[in-house]
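Q: Sequence in, structure out?
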Amino acid sequence: MQPVKIGILGLGTVGGGTVEVLIKNSTEIAARTGRDIVIHSVANLDDKCLKKLKLSTVKFSKDVFDVINDSQIDIIVELIGGTDLAKKCVIGALEAGKHIVTANKALIAIHGNEIFSLAQKKGLTVSFEAAVAGGIPIIKAMREGLSANKILSIAGIINGTGNFILSKMAEENVKFADALKQAQDLGYAESDPTFDVEGIDAAHKLCIMSSIAFGIKLQFDKVYTEGISAIKPDDVKHAKQLGYVIKHLGIAKQDKNGVQMRVHPTLIPDNKLLSNVDGVMNAVLIQSDALGESLYYGAGAGAHPTASAVVADIIDVARVLTSDPKNRVPHLAFQPNKLQNTTILAIEQITSSYYINLQVIDEAGVLAQISKILSDKNISIEAVIQHDTKNPQPQVPLIILTRQVKERFMDEALTKIAKLSTVHSYNRIRCEQLGD
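A: Exactly. Output:
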């Protein structure tokens, strides 16, 4: 058979890793695919890496559209990142009749509905395994391996930078800023870490997984997003005393009221599998009706782990090049005309238990004041940690763990608590039991 010819846009960390995996494993890849996969041309801002990547004989251009419009190419591999140029490249490639492989989670989360609609119209495939959880084949697992199941919930550590920071805070009792500095020094965090530590990166990924899990259109703007920069070492310490670990989770659930999609710091029991996922590793816990609980764990970033997913997508596309488009696995797992307009729940509508760290004046009766406000909103207290009053201080921590309540009622209670003259400040973190 004729070899499959690919064009790669971007030779950065992932692009370089993709080239290395394709060359190193070319024999095995050809055996799996039934035909050779050849790098026909590449586009990059400069040609300095061509020799190192053994691409000296490959067609090169600084203009991505030279590659996109090359009539000999079957698959365009988009690895330039961002959304503006990347969208133009992908739309242009689809219009030119090219299949797409991308690792671009922001592109899929924000523009995926438009891209998939055009691909469907053109009878083309857009594959994006590497867009979520790096090298973990979570998209394939959900879209194909769990296709017999009704997926009930997803809970994932899907950003390695945030997980590294929280792990360091727990291991070394350091502040957020110090843990972030370590992450930056090691190359895990960018100089501007906003996308990672404020949950935007995780929200892109959760949006994609939620669509595949629940058969809904991509709706990134409806993902509730909260970062980890407000987490303090005391929160980590108190969580441990209560038998919990703090993780930055992406959580999606479906019930009779609708679908919830949220990214935020979360207390989870220290005996759960996710609580032991540390450093830059990723993991996704899925609850489904037939299989039950399943966990997918591995490297969520890096040149070769992410390249593993990119190349797997290239192989999948190569296998179906000549197949009937109507018989291919749908982009979002469900047939396009079966995607539902399910209600996406606002964060005020979700139900959770809560950890509350209150800084209060060290005097008698404070807990009673706070307990009454919680009781008036039918919020039950599960546990309390009080400061030892043998050494009086102007302000002391009062830690409360509540039972489950609708967030709207917790917000109303905290608004009243914040107005008490005895309360200086508070920090609230949601708790999840993960399957119980």
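The CA atoms of residues 60 and 347 lie 48 Å apart.
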